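thread from #wetlab-drylab

HS: before we spend reagent money on co-crystallization trials with NAP, can we at least see a predicted complex? here's what I'd submit
DV: go for it
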Amino acid sequence: MIQPKSTIPNLLYGTAWKKERTDTLVEQAIQIGFRGIDTACQPKHYDEKRVGVALARLKEQGIDRSSLYLQTKFTPLSGQDPSSVPYDKKAVLSVQIEQSFNASLNNLHTDYLDALLLHSPLPTFELTLDAWHEMERLHNTGNVQRLGISNCYDLALFEKLFNTVSAKPTILQNRFYKDTHYDKPLRQFCIEQGVTYQSFWTLTANPHILSSTVMKSLADDVKKTPAQLFFRFLIQSGITPLTGTCSTSHMKQDLDTVNFQLSDKTMKTIRHLLI
Ligand SMILES: NC(=O)c1ccc[n+]([C@@H]2O[C@H](COP(=O)([O-])OP(=O)(O)OC[C@H]3O[C@@H](n4cnc5c(N)ncnc54)[C@H](OP(=O)(O)O)[C@@H]3O)[C@@H](O)[C@H]2O)c1
Protein backbone atom coordinates (compact mmCIF):
# COMPACT_ATOMS: atom_id res chain seq x y z
CA MET A 1 0.00 0.00 0.00
CA ILE A 2 1.33 3.47 -0.90
CA GLN A 3 1.77 5.55 2.25
CA PRO A 4 1.42 9.35 2.40
CA LYS A 5 4.91 10.83 2.47
CA SER A 6 6.04 11.66 6.02
CA THR A 7 8.24 14.63 6.84
CA ILE A 8 11.78 14.15 8.14
CA PRO A 9 11.95 15.25 11.80
CA ASN A 10 14.41 18.05 12.66
CA LEU A 11 16.50 15.68 14.79
CA LEU A 12 16.93 11.92 14.44
CA TYR A 13 17.71 9.31 17.07
CA GLY A 14 20.65 7.15 15.94
CA THR A 15 20.77 3.50 16.96
CA ALA A 16 24.38 2.47 16.30
CA TRP A 17 26.59 0.71 18.87
CA LYS A 18 23.85 0.13 21.44
CA LYS A 19 23.93 -3.65 21.24
CA GLU A 20 21.60 -5.25 23.78
CA ARG A 21 20.56 -1.82 25.10
CA THR A 22 19.12 -0.86 21.69
CA ASP A 23 15.47 -1.71 22.41
CA THR A 24 15.41 0.01 25.81
CA LEU A 25 17.13 3.15 24.50
CA VAL A 26 14.96 3.41 21.38
CA GLU A 27 11.84 2.95 23.51
CA GLN A 28 13.02 5.68 25.90
CA ALA A 29 13.94 8.04 23.05
CA ILE A 30 10.49 7.74 21.46
CA GLN A 31 8.73 8.03 24.82
CA ILE A 32 10.71 11.21 25.52
CA GLY A 33 9.68 12.68 22.18
CA PHE A 34 11.91 11.60 19.28
CA ARG A 35 9.90 10.67 16.20
CA GLY A 36 12.72 9.86 13.76
CA ILE A 37 14.92 6.76 13.92
CA ASP A 38 18.11 6.07 11.98
CA THR A 39 19.32 2.49 11.78
CA ALA A 40 21.01 0.11 9.32
CA CYS A 41 20.86 -3.50 8.22
CA GLN A 42 24.43 -3.91 9.44
CA PRO A 43 24.63 -6.21 12.48
CA LYS A 44 28.27 -5.21 13.01
CA HIS A 45 27.20 -1.79 14.30
CA TYR A 46 23.40 -1.79 14.57
CA ASP A 47 20.92 -4.17 16.19
CA GLU A 48 18.03 -3.48 13.83
CA LYS A 49 16.00 -6.38 15.28
CA ARG A 50 16.05 -4.72 18.69
CA VAL A 51 14.91 -1.44 17.13
CA GLY A 52 11.91 -3.48 15.95
CA VAL A 53 11.41 -4.90 19.45
CA ALA A 54 11.17 -1.34 20.77
CA LEU A 55 8.72 -0.40 18.00
CA ALA A 56 6.50 -3.36 18.88
CA ARG A 57 6.47 -2.32 22.56
CA LEU A 58 5.71 1.29 21.62
CA LYS A 59 2.80 0.14 19.46
CA GLU A 60 1.31 -1.57 22.52
CA GLN A 61 1.63 1.78 24.31
CA GLY A 62 -0.36 3.51 21.54
CA ILE A 63 2.57 4.92 19.53
CA ASP A 64 1.83 3.72 16.05
CA ARG A 65 4.37 3.13 13.30
CA SER A 66 2.59 5.75 11.14
CA SER A 67 3.59 8.48 13.63
CA LEU A 68 7.28 7.58 13.22
CA TYR A 69 9.93 8.24 10.60
CA LEU A 70 12.01 5.08 10.02
CA GLN A 71 15.22 5.29 8.05
CA THR A 72 17.57 2.39 7.41
CA LYS A 73 20.50 1.56 5.15
CA PHE A 74 21.76 -1.03 2.74
CA THR A 75 25.37 -1.69 3.71
CA PRO A 76 27.58 -3.09 0.94
CA LEU A 77 29.54 -6.28 1.68
CA SER A 78 32.75 -4.32 2.40
CA GLY A 79 31.00 -2.69 5.39
CA GLN A 80 29.67 -5.92 6.86
CA ASP A 81 31.25 -8.30 9.34
CA PRO A 82 31.79 -11.46 7.22
CA SER A 83 30.32 -13.60 10.02
CA SER A 84 27.00 -11.70 10.16
CA VAL A 85 26.11 -10.57 6.65
CA PRO A 86 22.33 -10.03 6.60
CA TYR A 87 21.96 -11.19 2.96
CA ASP A 88 23.44 -13.78 0.60
CA LYS A 89 27.00 -12.55 0.12
CA LYS A 90 27.34 -14.56 -3.10
CA ALA A 91 24.22 -13.07 -4.68
CA VAL A 92 24.41 -10.25 -7.23
CA LEU A 93 24.22 -6.71 -5.84
CA SER A 94 20.55 -6.17 -6.77
CA VAL A 95 19.53 -9.35 -4.92
CA GLN A 96 21.67 -8.38 -1.90
CA ILE A 97 19.82 -5.06 -1.75
CA GLU A 98 16.40 -6.68 -2.09
CA GLN A 99 17.25 -9.22 0.65
CA SER A 100 18.62 -6.49 2.93
CA PHE A 101 15.48 -4.41 2.35
CA ASN A 102 13.23 -7.38 3.19
CA ALA A 103 15.31 -8.12 6.30
CA SER A 104 14.86 -4.49 7.41
CA LEU A 105 11.08 -4.61 6.92
CA ASN A 106 11.01 -7.83 8.90
CA ASN A 107 13.27 -6.50 11.67
CA LEU A 108 11.28 -3.28 12.00
CA HIS A 109 7.83 -4.93 11.73
CA THR A 110 6.77 -2.61 8.97
CA ASP A 111 5.70 -2.86 5.34
CA TYR A 112 7.35 0.39 4.25
CA LEU A 113 10.39 2.56 5.00
CA ASP A 114 10.41 6.33 5.19
CA ALA A 115 13.92 6.26 3.78
CA LEU A 116 16.47 3.79 2.46
CA LEU A 117 20.09 4.96 2.30
CA LEU A 118 23.03 3.47 0.47
CA HIS A 119 25.50 3.30 3.38
CA SER A 120 28.42 4.33 1.16
CA PRO A 121 29.20 4.63 -2.53
CA LEU A 122 30.51 1.41 -4.12
CA PRO A 123 34.06 1.20 -5.52
CA THR A 124 33.03 2.37 -9.00
CA PHE A 125 30.34 4.71 -10.30
CA GLU A 126 28.88 1.86 -12.37
CA LEU A 127 28.43 -0.29 -9.26
CA THR A 128 26.96 2.63 -7.33
CA LEU A 129 24.52 3.12 -10.19
CA ASP A 130 23.64 -0.61 -10.20
CA ALA A 131 22.84 -0.34 -6.50
CA TRP A 132 20.82 2.81 -7.08
CA HIS A 133 18.75 1.20 -9.82
CA GLU A 134 17.69 -1.56 -7.44
CA MET A 135 16.87 1.04 -4.77
CA GLU A 136 14.85 2.92 -7.39
CA ARG A 137 12.93 -0.25 -8.18
CA LEU A 138 12.06 -0.60 -4.48
CA HIS A 139 11.11 3.07 -4.35
CA ASN A 140 8.82 2.60 -7.36
CA THR A 141 6.92 -0.17 -5.55
CA GLY A 142 5.80 2.51 -3.09
CA ASN A 143 7.39 0.72 -0.13
CA VAL A 144 10.26 3.20 0.25
CA GLN A 145 9.36 6.87 0.40
CA ARG A 146 12.80 8.38 -0.07
CA LEU A 147 16.26 7.34 -1.20
CA GLY A 148 19.52 8.68 0.10
CA ILE A 149 23.23 8.06 0.35
CA SER A 150 25.75 8.25 3.18
CA ASN A 151 29.50 8.76 3.40
CA CYS A 152 29.63 10.52 0.03
CA TYR A 153 32.12 13.37 0.42
CA ASP A 154 32.81 14.03 -3.24
CA LEU A 155 30.62 16.75 -4.76
CA ALA A 156 31.37 15.61 -8.33
CA LEU A 157 30.26 12.08 -7.51
CA PHE A 158 27.12 13.21 -5.71
CA GLU A 159 26.22 15.58 -8.56
CA LYS A 160 26.82 12.86 -11.14
CA LEU A 161 24.59 10.44 -9.27
CA PHE A 162 21.95 13.11 -8.77
CA ASN A 163 21.94 14.04 -12.45
CA THR A 164 21.97 10.45 -13.74
CA VAL A 165 19.20 8.77 -11.77
CA SER A 166 15.47 9.30 -12.05
CA ALA A 167 14.59 8.76 -8.36
CA LYS A 168 16.94 11.43 -6.99
CA PRO A 169 18.77 11.14 -3.68
CA THR A 170 16.82 13.33 -1.26
CA ILE A 171 19.10 12.63 1.75
CA LEU A 172 22.85 12.93 2.19
CA GLN A 173 24.09 11.61 5.55
CA ASN A 174 27.71 12.52 6.30
CA ARG A 175 30.24 12.88 9.07
CA PHE A 176 30.28 16.56 10.01
CA TYR A 177 33.90 17.46 10.60
CA LYS A 178 36.70 19.79 9.74
CA ASP A 179 38.68 17.32 7.59
CA THR A 180 36.03 17.80 4.87
CA HIS A 181 35.60 21.49 5.68
CA TYR A 182 32.12 20.61 6.90
CA ASP A 183 31.04 19.65 3.36
CA LYS A 184 30.39 23.29 2.44
CA PRO A 185 30.04 22.84 -1.37
CA LEU A 186 28.06 19.63 -0.90
CA ARG A 187 25.73 21.34 1.55
CA GLN A 188 25.22 24.22 -0.89
CA PHE A 189 24.28 21.71 -3.60
CA CYS A 190 21.86 20.05 -1.16
CA ILE A 191 20.18 23.38 -0.43
CA GLU A 192 19.84 24.14 -4.15
CA GLN A 193 18.38 20.71 -4.94
CA GLY A 194 16.16 20.28 -1.88
CA VAL A 195 18.27 17.42 -0.47
CA THR A 196 18.22 16.97 3.32
CA TYR A 197 21.76 16.99 4.72
CA GLN A 198 22.04 14.81 7.85
CA SER A 199 25.05 15.07 10.14
CA PHE A 200 26.67 12.43 12.33
CA TRP A 201 29.76 12.65 14.57
CA THR A 202 28.38 16.13 15.16
CA LEU A 203 29.49 16.38 18.79
CA THR A 204 32.24 13.73 18.79
CA ALA A 205 34.21 15.32 15.95
CA ASN A 206 33.93 18.88 17.18
CA PRO A 207 35.20 19.17 20.76
CA HIS A 208 37.30 22.18 19.68
CA ILE A 209 34.10 24.06 18.78
CA LEU A 210 32.09 22.88 21.79
CA SER A 211 34.81 23.80 24.27
CA SER A 212 35.68 27.13 22.67
CA THR A 213 35.23 30.26 24.75
CA VAL A 214 32.98 31.73 22.08
CA MET A 215 30.61 28.77 22.16
CA LYS A 216 30.57 28.59 25.96
CA SER A 217 29.76 32.26 26.25
CA LEU A 218 27.00 32.12 23.57
CA ALA A 219 25.52 29.06 25.31
CA ASP A 220 25.53 30.87 28.67
CA ASP A 221 23.70 33.81 27.04
CA VAL A 222 20.77 31.58 26.03
CA LYS A 223 21.03 29.34 29.13
CA LYS A 224 21.77 26.21 27.11
CA THR A 225 24.74 23.86 26.88
CA PRO A 226 27.28 24.20 24.01
CA ALA A 227 25.98 20.87 22.61
CA GLN A 228 22.42 22.21 22.54
CA LEU A 229 23.61 25.44 20.94
CA PHE A 230 25.49 23.53 18.23
CA PHE A 231 22.52 21.27 17.44
CA ARG A 232 20.26 24.35 17.33
CA PHE A 233 22.69 26.11 15.00
CA LEU A 234 22.64 23.11 12.64
CA ILE A 235 18.86 22.76 12.66
CA GLN A 236 18.48 26.47 11.98
CA SER A 237 20.97 26.08 9.10
CA GLY A 238 18.72 23.42 7.54
CA ILE A 239 20.80 20.42 8.68
CA THR A 240 19.21 17.40 10.36
CA PRO A 241 21.58 16.18 13.09
CA LEU A 242 21.62 12.64 14.41
CA THR A 243 22.12 12.00 18.08
CA GLY A 244 22.76 8.58 19.52
CA THR A 245 22.88 9.66 23.14
CA CYS A 246 22.42 6.92 25.77
CA SER A 247 21.46 9.42 28.46
CA THR A 248 17.83 10.38 29.04
CA SER A 249 18.82 13.86 30.22
CA HIS A 250 20.79 14.39 27.00
CA MET A 251 17.80 13.07 25.01
CA LYS A 252 15.68 15.79 26.63
CA GLN A 253 18.35 18.45 26.08
CA ASP A 254 18.79 17.40 22.44
CA LEU A 255 15.03 17.56 21.80
CA ASP A 256 14.82 20.97 23.49
CA THR A 257 16.93 22.35 20.61
CA VAL A 258 13.83 22.54 18.43
CA ASN A 259 12.22 24.92 20.93
CA PHE A 260 14.40 28.02 20.72
CA GLN A 261 15.72 30.36 18.06
CA LEU A 262 19.16 31.88 17.59
CA SER A 263 19.64 35.45 16.39
CA ASP A 264 21.24 36.14 12.99
CA LYS A 265 24.29 37.47 14.84
CA THR A 266 24.73 34.27 16.86
CA MET A 267 24.25 32.14 13.74
CA LYS A 268 26.96 34.13 11.97
CA THR A 269 29.37 33.82 14.90
CA ILE A 270 28.95 30.02 15.05
CA ARG A 271 29.21 29.73 11.25
CA HIS A 272 32.65 31.34 11.51
CA LEU A 273 33.78 28.48 13.78
CA LEU A 274 33.26 25.98 10.96
CA ILE A 275 36.65 26.29 9.33
N1 LIG B 1 26.13 6.75 8.08
C1 LIG B 1 27.13 6.38 8.83
O1 LIG B 1 28.15 5.84 8.36
C2 LIG B 1 27.07 6.64 10.32
C3 LIG B 1 28.26 6.58 11.07
C4 LIG B 1 28.17 6.85 12.43
C5 LIG B 1 26.95 7.15 13.00
N2 LIG B 1 25.81 7.18 12.24
C6 LIG B 1 24.49 7.44 12.85
O2 LIG B 1 24.59 8.60 13.65
C7 LIG B 1 24.16 8.32 14.98
C8 LIG B 1 24.86 9.22 15.95
O3 LIG B 1 26.22 8.85 16.00
P1 LIG B 1 27.38 9.88 16.35
O4 LIG B 1 28.61 9.33 15.74
O5 LIG B 1 26.95 11.25 15.94
O6 LIG B 1 27.58 9.82 17.87
P2 LIG B 1 26.61 9.58 19.11
O7 LIG B 1 26.37 8.12 19.22
O8 LIG B 1 25.44 10.48 18.98
O9 LIG B 1 27.54 10.01 20.29
C9 LIG B 1 27.74 11.37 20.53
C10 LIG B 1 28.35 11.62 21.87
O10 LIG B 1 27.76 12.83 22.28
C11 LIG B 1 27.23 12.70 23.59
N3 LIG B 1 26.01 13.54 23.66
C12 LIG B 1 24.82 13.43 23.03
N4 LIG B 1 23.99 14.44 23.35
C13 LIG B 1 24.69 15.21 24.20
C14 LIG B 1 24.40 16.41 24.86
N5 LIG B 1 23.23 17.03 24.76
N6 LIG B 1 25.37 16.93 25.65
C15 LIG B 1 26.56 16.34 25.77
N7 LIG B 1 26.90 15.19 25.16
C16 LIG B 1 25.96 14.64 24.40
C17 LIG B 1 26.98 11.25 23.79
O11 LIG B 1 27.16 10.90 25.14
P3 LIG B 1 25.94 10.35 26.05
O12 LIG B 1 25.55 9.03 25.48
O13 LIG B 1 26.52 10.28 27.41
O14 LIG B 1 24.88 11.39 25.92
C18 LIG B 1 28.08 10.59 22.94
O15 LIG B 1 29.26 10.43 23.68
C19 LIG B 1 24.44 6.82 15.13
O16 LIG B 1 23.69 6.21 16.16
C20 LIG B 1 24.03 6.32 13.76
O17 LIG B 1 22.62 6.19 13.69
C21 LIG B 1 25.85 6.95 10.90
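DV: The chain has a mean pLDDT of 97.
HS: ok that's useful, forwarding to the group
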